[in-house]
Design brief:
This protein has about 280 residues and is of the alpha/beta class. The chain has one domain (about 1-200): Rossmann fold. It is built from nine helices and seven strands; from the N terminus they run βαββαβαβααβααβαα. The protein has a five-stranded parallel beta sheet, sandwiched between helices. It has a two-stranded antiparallel ribbon with strand order 2-3. The chain is globular. The two termini are about 30 Å apart.
Length: about 280
């Protein structure tokens, strides 16, 4: 049996990759659930036992405090640590504290004998299509998070997927309507990248997940319903907590005279349309 424990936030929970559930007593017709890259990858492992301990809205501190103890109790053969977007969006962002927590988490998993999967994340400001004055400080934080994960990956020998520089990641079809979560195609892409790394490292794996979506995407009516209900609520929440923080970050950067960051290769066009997912919440 291969025990795979997936730590992280809503990306690992599978938000953005909705699947229709089979009819069952007490379940409404057409009900959906989330699947995601971790479940897709687990299907390729020999005799898999998947445990997703990720939490919606989790930051690195939550992962260290709550998810790591649960993960270690499961004695994983493979573990994933995909985290960081929520840290960049928090007013108490502290790269030094994040680095210490990341080293503790990944070091403990490696010491327990697990092969650990980590990932460099694309810039959330670009994915959200924020104005440059707001996107720039968020990009700087994303670079700091990726620097932390690069160091941890090098130190502990993780299988490290560089999604920030992967040209396919910036294809709008890879993203859900909220631009923070992958679509089914995006989740499949992550699973395929990690599958290739496990295979190259000599880990026994079966055939990779397919690249093309297998489920029918949400209809225009479903997309509109999401935007009119949950999408509106998401925007309102982000307008009251994220935007003031971003403005404060932008003002602080302007006062410090920080140099602008280089434009990342393959950055998406903020005006391009991304396909919708169902009921996406904050990462």
């Amino acid at each position: 049996m291969t025990t795979f424990v997936a730590l992280g936030d809503s990306i690992t929970l599978g938000i953005g990759d909705p699947i229709r559930l089979a009819p069952a007593p007490g379940r409404r017709k057409g009900a959906r659930s989330w699947r995601g890259w971790a479940a897709l990858l687990a299907e390729t492992l020999p005799d898999p036992a998947l445990h997703i301990v990720a939490g919606n809205g989790a930051c690195m501190a939550d992962l260290e405090r709550e998810q790591l103890p649960a993960a270690l109790q499961l004695r994983p053969d493979v573990a994933s640590v995909v985290i960081g977007v929520n840290d960049t969006l928090r007013p108490n962002f502290d790269p030094d504290r994040l680095a210490a927590a990341a080293a503790h988490v990944v070091g403990a998993l490696r010491a327990a004998g697990a092969d650990v999967l980590t990932m460099r994340l694309p810039d959330p400001g670009r994915m959200l299509g924020l104005p440059e004055v707001l996107a720039r400080p968020l990009a700087r934080r994303a670079h700091q998070v990726n620097d932390v994960m690069d160091e941890v990956a090098h130190r502990f020998g993780t299988l490290h997927f560089d999604a920030a520089s992967d040209a396919q990641v910036h294809d709008p079809q890879m993203w859900a309507v909220d631009r923070l979560h992958p679509s089914e195609r995006g989740h499949r892409h992550i699973a395929r990248r990690f599958h290739a790394m496990l295979a190259e490292a000599g880990h026994p794996v079966g055939p990779p997940p397919g690249a093309e979506p297998m489920n029918e995407p949400p209809s225009k009516a479903e997309q509109f319903a999401w935007m009119a209900t949950k999408g509106t609520a998401w925007v309102v929440r982000r307008s009251t907590d994220l935007v003031p923080s971003l403005l404060a970050m932008a003002i602080a950067e302007w006062r410090s005279g920080a140099a602008p960051l280089a434009e990342p290769a393959g950055a998406p066009d903020p005006t391009s349309e991304a396909p919708a997912s169902m009921e996406c919440e904050a990462a």
